[in-house]
Amino acid sequence: MKKRQTTALFITSLVPFVVGNGLLPHLPVYARTFGASSFASGYYVAIAFTATAIGSIIAGKLSDLLDRRKVLLWFSTGCMVPLIYLMGMATSFSQLAVLTGLVWFFGGAAISLVAILVGLSADTPKRGRSFGIVGITVPAGTLIGGIVIGPIIDHSGYGTMFLVLSCFSLLSPIAILLLHDKSTNRSETHVAVQHSDKRVRRLFILVLFAQLIAMIANGSGHLGRSLSMDMLEYSSTSISTTAIAAGLIALPIPFLLGYLSDKFGRKKVLLSAYLSGALSLILFAVSVRIWHFWIGASFLAVLGVSLSIGPALMTDIFPKKNIGSAISLFQGFSWIGSIVGSAGFGYVFQRCGLQNGFLIGTVFPIASASILLLTFNPQKTRYRNSL
Q1: For the residues of 235-253, what is the DSSP string, one character each?
Q2: Count of other CB atoms within 10 angstroms of residue 251
Q3: Least enclosed by CB within 10 Å: which of 40, 51, 124, 364?
Q4: pTM of the full predicted structure?
């Protein structure tokens, strides 16, 4: 993939992750300023993640239908700019909930479209590395958002913070002007090598199911980590440093795992990502000191790298005309898993306690790894799909 294309996609992907990962810890607090209860605040965050999943899936469908990915991406990122500003101008909780849902909807669409363009633009032998480079925006967004957004709120308030984020979001539509759009030739044929369409569909369903289950651990891990550190009476600053430390440690991991997926296969790397999620929950269950939480959060960040490796796998096995739908469904199922983990494990932690809840959560990524073992190796028997 050319440097200009890589740079434009990297910047475009970075913006929604800075906005989303940076705002997420502060959304429940901001909602309370409108009189929202704790239950309503949790429901509010669930709306944001649900909108992300819907936006991701719809963007993929439109990508395949219209075959105009650059226009869709420019529209999605352009809509985010005024909507983020309006979040700071909201006068009621209902207005805030609607605006937040719209921002996360277009953010999910943008993230999905970036992944689709990476899949269509990357050279086949270096596809994992291309996804890995763009995947660095996930920990980078967490790091930048964690460092910048909190101090702006403390010194200047929420209105200024949303104004700054709105201006920052202008980077995406500007960067998209440098992009070269990738269209698919609908008349081309794709011939399966050594496996049937039925086997591909079975692989696709199993991978989607495995990813959804694994990302339940992601949602439960983020929720449980905050609850555990709060119970141990760590300050808000200490809790924030955990996300920052994890972001720093995880910065090179997407590229490294992308490179390894090119060398040893996507399946093995996804397996390692899922098992890292299980290890993170075990570490959270026994964590007492802050550096324990840093290590656990770093392993949880490795699980998040599946959002980069999975789309590379989808690109390996599907013809170009179906890549948009395949990648967007994979990412949509990932967000749904995080929603289930965040919402469901609030109840589990309350009923079973934090330590037992973490140990229960390890079942999900281990089950995902077991499901993945049932699949064939798609990189040895893939579609002839010259990018």
Answers
A1: -HHHHHHHHHHHHHHHTTH
A2: 17
A3: 124
A4: 0.84
